[in-house]
From TrEMBL:
Keywords: ATP-binding, Helicase, Hydrolase, Nucleotide-binding. Pfam families: PDDEXK_1 (PF12705). This is DNA helicase/exodeoxyribonuclease V, subunit B. Residues 1-15 have a biased composition (Basic and acidic residues). Residues 647-906 form the PD-(D/E)XK endonuclease-like domain. Its EC number is 3.1.11.5. The keyword Nucleotide-binding applies. It comes from the Bacteria. One of its GO terms (molecular function) is exodeoxyribonuclease V activity. Residues 1-50 are annotated as: Disordered.
Length: 915
């Protein structure tokens, strides 16, 4: 692994060690050899080696170890006492293998990185309280504490601004600490004074950023120096350093301060022209994201099929390479991942975050259902709980009524309450207490052992520090006891930790190197890959100018010895040039990213210009597959045994709209489950309005119209409280109802004056009309309301009212052709069959309650005749279906335009000669 001070973006650019010019100093070996420059100058040590041969990775390592051996002989050194500093841990085995391949190889030198060398000198001491520890978990907490001490009300006044300031403070402190630790101990005090002077500028624009940078500087000064001091105290026989890509300020300073002999070896490819590329370079221009991912995966597979491995897959675009990896895994190709991905995207991280979301006081029912669905084993009662909540329209856990749950759903609900009980505290608790409660909740849920048995789960537990209680006297223990969170704060902290820490998947156990290695661009340098596939070589992911350091900017960064944006861009260019050493290099980029056009990388364009004779256009690596068209026959299902014995208006309307959809959704039970959405939509409003009007007409006292408005408003508020809807969520419909209320009361008072009164509301009926006796079919339904109204000839009549919140125009269109309307005639026939009210004595109407247009009564012109015709149609249809008539998919009309069963009938794959 790479040391912390070797992370991209924190390395200086090709600086010479102070006071150490090339070839200067009696105790220094200053040839400072490059391996190899593209346009090399004469080198006495390589007279017999053609410069082009050094472009290959293996030749580069051979020359490197030969230079080290020659340096040891020239300085009369024991090679085993020479320390060779390499950029990455992946280079160590390559250097050792190259050394052992030398003829008459002497004792092997100490090949190290700065990090491995520090570890060999002794374990690091635990961080002291308040100290900058380069810890992605503890440091943000300490940064937040420092800011609270400076501006106590900032977290409450501007939470988002405070969170951004914490992130920038932490980032800047780590950058400054690495810059200071890279210096020799004697130079750190002077650097600190210089930094303080530069950051103590006048007030004005950027004052807040400058203040945060000063705080970051003082905090960075608390970082422990023991590891870096141990390196400076080391006295090997000589130092050798390999410079490639981004230079390491610690290595530069360490060797500049050394009194022992020093050899610099520079393997960067520098030249105005890149015409001498040893391998094959091809560039593929892709259409879009998916095309690029498929081509990259196919190119990797093509290399493997030809026996070219290992293949490097360079991670320029993390989202894209995740897709490429998924495509490779479908082909059972093992991939060793050196990049990792956020713990938040792992299943273990999602499980923990799902638990915290589900126990939140304002959690939605979907939060709990999603968490139960992610459980390692199926959960008994989940389907029953889901069905109960969808039936009652419950969208928030605080709305759950245990009395309405079936036994299986109730058992699961009570089990959940026991699981979430440790995390249900409403007061602020210390972080350590929260972590203990989280561990207890995971144990109760039976997830603790499964997390420990999973690589990502173990890393999640360790990142959250909830494996065990922290030692009371440790820095982390004190911090966990001091920091306090409420439920929202805990969830945000866990989410931040899982976003900050990367999951490092274990390498596949193949008994050797993996055939495909997913690696960052910088770590692909000087590695003996048979081929490199580099998707994402576009202007957004390769060669773009990096953003300046947020609190410092480029000018201050340069003054403090930090890399500027231009220097980091140059580091990336050098790393990209190193890819030219491999035998096979494929660069891919896409023309557009979604709807936005996307240009090729400027580094790629420069390569195509400089080495136009060596760079060729990539072909199509995917293998075409001939697909024979297989159009489907028009579906004609027959299912007399599945026909129901009762029918409601909605089901029969579905049968009339499309018999196949009726078959799929009603007979096979494949209807889509309704979404449980926290947002209040018009359907929720309609359900609420039905309940309000039902309560109103049951509770009101006739003869007191002056009290109706207050009663109706009181009932509306009570019903809203039962729904557990916030005023903010319900505000649009509350305004709508306030506009509707006086209009509805004015209409109803006028109806009462004409002799109307309410007989019943929300009336559930089930009956069998004589016309359906032969088919053995009953009708069922719920009538919104039945009124007694004056009829013709002075006789009383029953009026069926169906509440509608749709517009008056829509309802008038429905009634324009009475025989096409199913609902009102269906209700008239059902009322006759159940209550013996002849259709001739029944009126039926839609009551439009669209608040914008007032209240309109839209009567069916002849509901009795329509009811008789409807019963004849139902009897004829079900007699045919019971006799084995098919239920075809109509494949036309408005019912087919937006149909959830379209994927079942395969409307888009029918033969053209369908009936």
């Amino acid at each position: 692994m790479r040391s912390s001070h070797e992370l991209p973006g924190h390395n200086d650019f090709d600086t010479r060690p102070p006071g150490a010019p090339r070839g200067a100093g009696p105790a220094r070996y200053g040839d400072d050899r490059r391996i190899p420059p593209l346009n090399p100058t004469p080198d006495p040590a390589a007279k017999d080696m053609p410069p082009e041969a050094d472009l290959a990775v293996a030749a580069c390592w051979t020359r490197l170890v030969r230079e080290i051996a020659a340096f040891s002989r020239r300085e009369a050194l024991a090679s085993r006492d020479v320390v060779v500093l390499l950029p990455f841990a992946q280079h160590l085995s390559l250097a050792r293998a190259a050394w052992l391949a030398l003829d008459h190889a002497p004792w092997i030198p100490r090949f190290e990185t700065t990090q491995t060398l520090q570890r060999s000198l002794g374990p690091p001491l635990p961080a002291a309280p308040g100290e900058l520890a380069f810890d992605p978990v503890a440091d943000p907490l300490q940064a937040a504490q420092l800011l609270r001490e400076q501006v106590p009300d900032w977290p409450h006044r501007d939470p988002r601004g405070f969170a951004l300031a914490v992130a920038r403070l932490n980032e800047t402190a780590q950058v400054l600490a690495r810059a200071r630790l890279a210096l020799p101990p004697a130079q750190r005090a002077a650097w600190l004074e210089k930094a303080r002077s530069l950051l103590s500028g006048p007030t004005g624009p950027g004052q807040q950023e400058r203040a945060l940078a000063r705080l970051a500087l003082e905090w960075s000064n608390t970082a422990a120096t023991m590891g870096a001091d141990a390196l400076y105290a080391l006295r090997p026989a000589a130092w050798v350093a390999l410079r490639v890509g981004a230079s390491d300020p610690l290595v530069e300073s360490l060797l500049a301060a050394s009194s022992e002999p020093v050899l610099w070896l520079d393997a960067d490819l520098r030249a105005p022209g890149l015409r001498s590329v040893p391998g094959a370079v091809q560039v593929s221009e892709c259409d879009d994201f998916e095309d690029e991912a498929q081509r990259a995966a196919a190119q990797v597979l093509a290399h493997l099929a030809q026996g070219e491995q290992p293949v490097a897959l360079v991670a320029l675009d993390r989202v894209l390479v995740r897709r490429v990896r998924a495509l490779l895994e479908r082909q059972q190709v093992p991939v060793s991942d050196e990049t990792g991905w956020k713990l938040s995207t792992t299943r273990a991280g999602a499980t923990v975050m799902g638990l915290l979301r589900a126990v939140h006081p304002r959690a939605a029912t979907d939060d709990l259902l999603d968490w139960l669905a992610s459980a390692p084993a199926p959960v008994d009662g989940r389907a029953a709980l889901d069905a109960a909540w969808r039936r009652d329209g419950i969208t928030a856990l605080r709305q759950v009524d245990e009395a309405r749950l079936e036994p299986a759903a109730l058992a699961l609900w009570q089990q959940w309450l026991a699981i979430g009980e440790p995390l249900s505290a409403t007061r602020r608790l210390a972080l350590g207490e929260w972590l203990s409660r989280l561990r207890e909740a995971l144990l109760r849920a039976g997830l603790w052992e499964s997390l420990l048995g999973d690589a990502a789960g173990r890393q999640v537990i360790d990142a959250l520090r909830c494996r065990a209680e922290p030692p009371a006297g440790s820095a982390w223990g004190q911090q966990a006891a001091r920091v306090r969170f409420d439920a929202d704060g805990l969830r945000d902290w866990v989410d931040g930790v899982l976003e900050a820490v990367s999951f490092e998947p274990p390498s596949p156990d193949l008994g050797g190197a993996a055939p495909v290695i997913l690696t960052p661009l910088a770590r692909a340098m000087l590695r003996p890959f048979a081929a490199v596939v580099c998707p994402g070589a576009d202007a957004a992911h390769l060669g773009a100018l990096p953003k300046p350091q947020a609190l410092l900017g480029d000018a201050l960064a340069a003054a403090l010895g930090l890399p500027s944006s231009a220097q980091r861009r140059e580091h990336e260019r050098r790393a990209f040039a190193q890819l030219l050493r491999v035998p096979q290099l494929t660069l891919l980029h896409r023309r557009r990213d979604g709807a936005e056009p996307l240009q090729a990388s400027p580094l790629l364009l420069q390569l195509q210009f400089d080495a136009r004779e060596a760079v060729r256009s990539g072909g199509e690596p995917r293998t075409p597959v001939a697909v024979v068209p297989r159009p489907l026959a028009h579906p004609l299902p027959v299912a007399p045994a599945l026909l129901p014995d009762s029918l409601n208006a909605t089901a029969y309307e579905a049968l009339r709209a499309c018999p196949y959809r009726f078959f799929a959704q009603r007979l096979l039970g494949l209807a889509e489950a309704e979404e449980l959405d926290d947002a209040v939509d018009k359907r929720d409003y309609g359900t609420w309005l039905h309940a309000v009007l039902q309560d109103f007409h049951r509770q009101r006292q006739p003869g007191a119209p002056q009290d109706d408005a207050a009663l109706l408003l009181r009932i509306a508020r009570a019903r809203q409280a039962l729904l557990a809807r916030d005023d903010a969520d319900f505000l649009p419909f509350a305004v709508w109802f306030e506009d509707l209320l006086p209009r509805y009361l004015a209409w109803w008072h006028a109806e009462e004056a004409l002799g109307a009164n309410v007989i019943d509301t929300e009336l559930e009926l089930l009956a069998q009309p004589p016309a359906l006796a032969a088919a053995g079919l009953r009708l069922r339904g719920t009538l919104d309301r039945i009124d007694a109204v004056p009829g013709k000839g002075g006789h009383g009549a029953h009026r069926i009212l169906d509440y509608k919140t749709s517009s008056e125009t829509t309802l008038r269109e429905r009634l324009r052709q009475p025989l096409e309307d199913t609902q009102l005639p269906f209700y008239a026939a059902l009322l006759d069959a159940s209550r013996g009210v002849p259709p001739g004595d029944v009126q039926a109407a839609y009551l439009s309650l669209d608040g914008r247009e007032g209240v309109k009564l839209l009567a069916h012109p002849d509901v009795a005749a329509s009811a008789a015709t409807l019963l004849e149609g139902i009897a004829a249809d079900f007699t045919r279906l019971q006799a084995g008539a098919p239920m075809p998919a109509l494949g036309e009309g408005s019912a087919c335009e937006h149909c959830s069963a379209r994927g079942l009938c395969r409307r888009d794959h029918w033969r053209e000669d369908r009936a």
